[in-house]
Recover the amino acids of this structure.
């Protein structure tokens, strides 16, 4: 295989571009936005993501530009410490088990490394047409240009147009849960991944992202179509945090401006296997979009990139490589989607018989720390 097109400059597309370029493939990456950039919020990278970043060769740079976390702490609603346990690192016993980062920083690290490996990046460009024959895919772009490729990777996220154009419609699940992510100054006391026990159906947590910053996440049930106005965001976030004490009470007045806050709802999807049609393959959120309850979305994107690279290197027969990739990835990604859906259901339906968040999360982390 000599030429690949990657559609989408998110975590998945950038990681795939980096790896395929390193494997000697001529890679074009197109991003429909004017710049390859991410929402200015934070991201929690679990051990599986750190292991994958290490395999991509960007682990040290990420750790140097994020906040390495070695412990997980849980708090009662009044702010009393309930438990603290160490997070094992898959990278090395002297390394963090989790990394908090600002999303734009992670993007910059991946973009710079992909470009250094030889990826050509074109922004403000999207595909409008795919024509496949036995030897190639011809792609028409919004710019009026066309290109011929051996492989097209649809890494264009939850609302993937590659998926719509090549695979047909896939119905997402709306979970009835919304999330506010708030960028805040980091108080010195927040050095761990912090989560509070839910108060009713509201759940909050904190991830440090740098020496001077952290982000808070607040989840709560919402009706379909609910979208708070910009002017409501500060009061909404402060109101949801109000029942919580301790750290949560101490940072409440730091929620000051709508620019600090991002709101979205949880919608998930899982494309049935196989994840390829001819020479077009899906990866990342385009193929499997989980809720963030396990903090595993980025890990799954990064692992997809690694497995796709390994599968392509293992056989010159493209169809065999893409089948091997999908067969290896589907069960693990389905597990992340299903587990996130279950945790979301339990949070929005307090008192569900048999609900046991801590057990399910602990078992999931153990599974995700295992081989992929
Ligand atoms: C609220 C929330 C919180 C989350 N928190 C975490 C977390 O803490 N930890 C974690 O690991 N995961 C988290 N996730 C999940 C994680 O963000 C995603 O799994 C991951 O970003 C998906 O990356 P991606 O590259 O597949 O897609 P995306 O990040 O969606 O990137 C797709 C890119 O493709 C571009 N694009 C779209 N269509 C086209 C087109 N037609 N042509 C060209 N370009 C196109 C888009 O502009 C975008 O740049 C969270 C998700 C949500 C919703």
């Amino acid at each position: 295989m000599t030429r690949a097109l990657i559609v989408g400059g998110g975590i998945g597309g950038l990681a795939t571009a980096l790896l395929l370029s390193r494997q000697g493939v001529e890679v074009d990456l197109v991003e429909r936005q004017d710049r390859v950039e991410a929402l200015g919020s934070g991201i929690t990278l679990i051990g599986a993501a750190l292991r994958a970043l290490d395999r991509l060769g960007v682990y040290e740079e990420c750790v140097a530009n994020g906040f390495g976390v070695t412990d997980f702490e849980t708090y009662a609603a009044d702010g009393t410490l309930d438990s603290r346990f160490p997070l094992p690192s898959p990278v090395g016993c002297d390394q963090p088990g989790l990394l908090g980062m600002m999303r734009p920083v992670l993007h910059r690290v991946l973009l710079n490394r992909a470009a250094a490996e030889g990826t050509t990046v074109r922004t403000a460009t999207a595909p409008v047409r795919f024509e496949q024959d036995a030897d190639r895919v011809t792609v028409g772009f919004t710019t009026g240009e066309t290109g011929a490729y051996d492989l097209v990777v649809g890494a264009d996220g939850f609302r993937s147009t590659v998926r719509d154009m090549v695979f047909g419609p896939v119905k997402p699940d709306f979970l009835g849960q919304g999330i506010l992510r708030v960028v805040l100054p980091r108080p010195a006391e927040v050095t761990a991944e912090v989560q509070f026990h839910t108060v009713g159906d509201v759940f909050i947590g904190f991830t440090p992202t740098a020496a001077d910053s952290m982000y808070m996440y607040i989840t709560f049930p919402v009706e379909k179509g609910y979208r708070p106005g910009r002017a409501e965001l500060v009061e909404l976030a402060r109101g949801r945090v109000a029942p919580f004490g301790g750290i949560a009470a101490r940072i409440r007045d730091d929620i000051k401006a709508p620019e600090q806050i991002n709101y979205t709802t949880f919608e998930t999807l899982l494309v049935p296997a196989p994840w390829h049609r001819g020479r077009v393959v899906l990866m990342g959120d385009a193929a499997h979009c989980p809720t963030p309850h396990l903090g595993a979305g980025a890990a799954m994107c990064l692992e997809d990139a690694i497995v796709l690279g390994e599968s392509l290197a293992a056989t010159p027969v493209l169809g065999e490589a893409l089948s091997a990739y999908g067969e290896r990835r589907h069960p693990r990604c389905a597990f992340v989607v299903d587990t996130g859906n279950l945790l979301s259901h339990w949070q929005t339906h307090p008192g569900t018989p048999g609900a046991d968040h801590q057990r399910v999360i602990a078992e999931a982390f153990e599974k995700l720390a295992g081989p992929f």
Residues 318-348 form the longest helix (31 residues). The radius of gyration is 21 Å. Residues 14 and 250 are 38 Å apart (CA to CA). The first strand starts at residue 3 and ends at 7.
